[in-house]
């Protein structure tokens, strides 16, 4: 990988994906790797600027690498996810998902709640869940191995804060991770 020019880490519901981009500015070669697997390879491209579009993760999220000339033979590489810059996408994602990272049976678990669909993911797998209404909100139950897990959704009572989601595993509250 001598022409490696950019590496991005993208946190999606099914995990954190590594995107690598090779750009041969003399040959015009373009190679895109997702999690170490080659997704796109183009040799001898005469146009050195442009874009490469591919998918990432289990949900086949659309990703585009933009190649722009900055000055002379210098190039800038930006990554868009679902049509938004990576920064905007991640800012928006922090509003639409909650993520918790915890250790269960000596293994790291990454639990993601998609607030719009109430889908729960654990280490890249969509979990079977059971939702129920309780006195102060809702509870979404699922299990990881032999562990009982529950995401409680309770109103904060403040309009700006909205609903507070809390992950409880084996009767202990797990702090939310910052991605």
From TrEMBL:
Q: Which domain of life is it from?
A: Eukaryota
Q: Which InterPro entries match?
A: FAIM1 (IPR010695), FAIM1_dom_sf (IPR038513)
Q: What is its main location?
A: cytoplasm
Q: Where in the cell is it found?
A: Cytoplasm
Give the organism the record lists: Dromaius novaehollandiae
A GO term (biological process) for this protein?
apoptotic process
Going by the UniProt record, its keywords in alphabetical order are: Apoptosis, Cytoplasm
Q: Does the keyword Cytoplasm apply?
A: yes
Q: Which GO terms describe its cellular component?
A: cytoplasm
**What protein family is recorded?**
Belongs to the FAIM1 family.
Purpose:
Plays a role as an inducible effector molecule that mediates Fas resistance produced by surface Ig engagement in B cells.
User: Entry's Pfam families?
Assistant: FAIM1 (PF06905)
Q: What is this protein's record name?
A: Fas apoptotic inhibitory molecule 1
Gene designation per UniProt = FAIM
């Amino acid at each position: 990988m001598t022409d490696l020019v950019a590496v991005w880490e993208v946190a999606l519901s099914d995990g954190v994906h590594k995107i690598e981009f090779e750009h041969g500015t003399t040959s015009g070669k373009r190679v895109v790797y997702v999690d170490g697997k080659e997704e796109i390879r183009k040799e001898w491209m005469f146009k050195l600027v442009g874009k490469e579009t591919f998918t990432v993760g289990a949900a086949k999220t659309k990703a585009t690498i933009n190649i722009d000339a900055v000055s002379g033979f210098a190039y800038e590489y930006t990554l868009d996810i679902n049509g938004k810059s990576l920064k905007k996408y991640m800012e928006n994602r922090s509003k639409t998902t909650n993520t918790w990272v915890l250790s269960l049976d000596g293994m790291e678990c990454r639990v993601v709640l998609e607030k719009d669909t109430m889908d729960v993911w654990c280490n890249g797998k969509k979990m079977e869940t059971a939702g129920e209404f309780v006195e102060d909100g809702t509870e979404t139950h699922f299990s990881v191995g032999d562990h009982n897990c529950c995401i409680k959704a309770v109103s904060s009572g403040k309009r700006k804060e909205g609903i507070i989601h809390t992950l409880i595993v084996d009767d202990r509250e797990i702090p939310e991770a910052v991605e």
